[in-house]
Automatic annotation (TrEMBL):
Cell membrane as UniProt keyword: no
InterPro entries (alphabetical): Beta-barrel_TonB, Beta-barrel_TonB_sf, Plug_dom, Plug_dom_sf, Secretin/TonB_short_N, TonB-dep_rcpt-like, TonB_rcpt_CS, TonB_sidphr_rcpt
Domain Secretin/TonB short N-terminal residues, every copy: 47-99
GO terms (BP aspect): siderophore transport
Family membership noted in the UniProt record: Belongs to the TonB-dependent receptor family.
Protein's UniProt name: Iron complex outermembrane recepter protein
Presence of the UniProt keyword Transport in the record: yes
GO CC annotation, single: cell outer membrane
Signal sequence, start to end: 1-24
Amino acid sequence: MRSIPFLPTLIALSLGLTAAQVQAVELDIPAQPLDSALTDFAEQAGIRLLYDASLTRGVSGRQALKGDYSVGEGLQQLLQGSGLTFSIGADGTVTLIPRPDNSDVLELGATTVSGQLDGRRDLPAIYAGGQVARGANIGLLGNQDMQDVPFAFSSYTSELIETRQAQTLADVLASDPGVRQSYGFGNFSQVFVVRGFQLYSDDIAFNGLYGILPRQIISTESVERVEVFKGANAFINGVAPGGSGVGGAINVVSKRAEDTPTRSFTLDYANDSRVGGHLDLGRRFGEDNRFGVRVNLAQREGETAVDDEHSRFSLATVALDYRGERLRLAADLGYQKQRVNEGRSVVYLTTESNTTVTSTLNGKVPSVPDSKHNYAQPWSWSQLEDSYGMFSAEYDLSPSWTAYLIGGGKYTRENGVYASNYVYGADGAARIGRLYSPLDQETLSLATGLRGELQTGPVSHKVNLAANGIWQEKRNAFESTTAGNRGHGNLYEGLPVPVPTASLPSGDLHDPDTTAKVQNKSLAISDTLGFVDDRVLLTLGLRRQTIGADAWSAASGARTSNYQDSITTPAYGLVIKPTEYLSLYANRVESLQQGPTAPNAANNRGTMFAPYRSKQTEVGVKLDWGRFGGNLSVFRIEQPQGVLDGRGNYGVDAEQRNRGIELSLFGEPLSGLRLLGGATWTEAELRGTAGGVNDGNQAVGVPEFQFNVSADWDVPGVPGLSLNGLLLRTGGQYVDTANDYSIPAWTRVDLGARYKTRLDQRAVTFNAIVENVADENYWASANGGYLTQGAPRTFKVSATVDF
């Protein structure tokens, strides 16, 4: 080992290197691409090295590095000519950052970087390949590394969003093997199924806060990351306002200004004639770039790939932030409006038989119409308009303790005339219903808490205290057709029918009265105890949740329910890390939903029941090889359900028990090849059903298996060109609890290409993708007991220029 001169030692210390990192280490790194060389360097030098994979992608190979070098000397050798330098965080983490002048002179600035390169110092680092991050916001626990928490999650980055040309949240989550998507009941809201349970778009968090995002369809133009938490989550996030999310939760992270100014414009086109544009502007300014502004504007309009279906979309968002030494502030303001004319709706099956209609389904689901065929009515339309805003503040009380406050609100105006197909004939014969239901919704949401670390002897502690509250008011009225007034139509012919005669309106259609209020409040505490140098982590926590809900009849204004109850939710989690790349975990957590009220047909009608307590048990293993990682978990979730027994008494005695295995894989195992995929197997069994008739049956809309494989490959010899593909395979699903009706398994393949170049000294990216290449006709989901048809072959192209 050679001696370290005095001056280089001072230089290394000024960069923040620890004493161990100042000492020389023996390195033997063969000639190879930079990203592979950096992986070997981090392992041999024994350091934690973080960087955005896009910074090193395509950088030419490095010369071999062999001999005794300090960390600083070794990195300087490896990074020569790459346009990169490095900085050291307070914890000794080494982070690569772009060199401002692209020179080869090592700048010894005092900048401290804690794991992010794009100005988002509050976000976990991006994993190799750039499509996922190695951490996420775990609600009460804050941002966490994937190896340190006893839960399964995925965090998808803006790079994946851009590669997939994702325009909505559903486009992003198509890449998740544990999530499937359908439409809402009678409208076009995106409903997600996680571990076999519904998650409404109403119940998706925004920067950790419920009730802020647009209600039905969430666009991606202003989204930095999409984080998916797998499993029961009442302790982590509290109860969502819509009461869904038993099997998982989704958090959307907004874009912020980056250290490098953002100036880009994207022009996109999709068949048949949908054209759009997206302007993304952001920059930081002031001393140390403390202030940031990010603006996103988008407009898209035209006919979709479904015949005669027309949509128009507008978005405007502004994100502001300030990052000081101890104080960090942020604010997000947004407006989104979307209108769909003749939108292809979901399909309902009916076995009704009367003097005019006789069902001929006989246990068979109608065959799928042509993928482009539209069975909507020309008089149907839907318009969604949302205005929202939120703020957040964090203040470091000390190096180890941080207090935070988050708050926000949303106003939603929803309107539309919906046409529903109730199919009763094997030949597609259907009755066409009509619903007009204007809705106004206002939401206010708050969260505050304290996070900190302390040491008691050999045991470390990460303590969290939190208080959450959400207040929501809905005002709506409606008019609809009865079964006898529905028009006669056909699923396959799709011929127009006269507007069906509606019953008398329920409520004032022009000025709806309040019909529902939600008030959810909770207090939570947790402690993550670390043993054996934090190789064993035990998480213990409690959340005291109060659920309040009131409802009034739209027609008469009379109160129909007044629910108020409280319950305490415990959580237990264990992580054992026998090696740096292996993490074993287990958890026992719960989800909560508002308890039911006994129906009028029951002997105990009007009786209110305690909140549904869904219990989850899970064990799993996580692997992290630096460039490629994965998660394998085995879980069981037991959700109580209400049932009317043979004596006419209503009770919470039934259950849906979902048992499953999840596998996810991600990263860049080979330079230039990025993989993302996995598989899920789920057995969703009904138990304790009325009279035991449906005991043992599979739950509605839950496929027994689903798997995804996606790849993004840099073509050798053609700098800037990448090819990508996505394969989705989903098992069959039952439409009814008796398991008499089912839809078959389906497969979808998407193929795409991306080319990055420079034109007139400006970076330009061309992107093309074909979804459902084979133009398969398939029922995509039976979630909710109705059918959602898969989209037809859709061709998307876009061009993005940085200016």
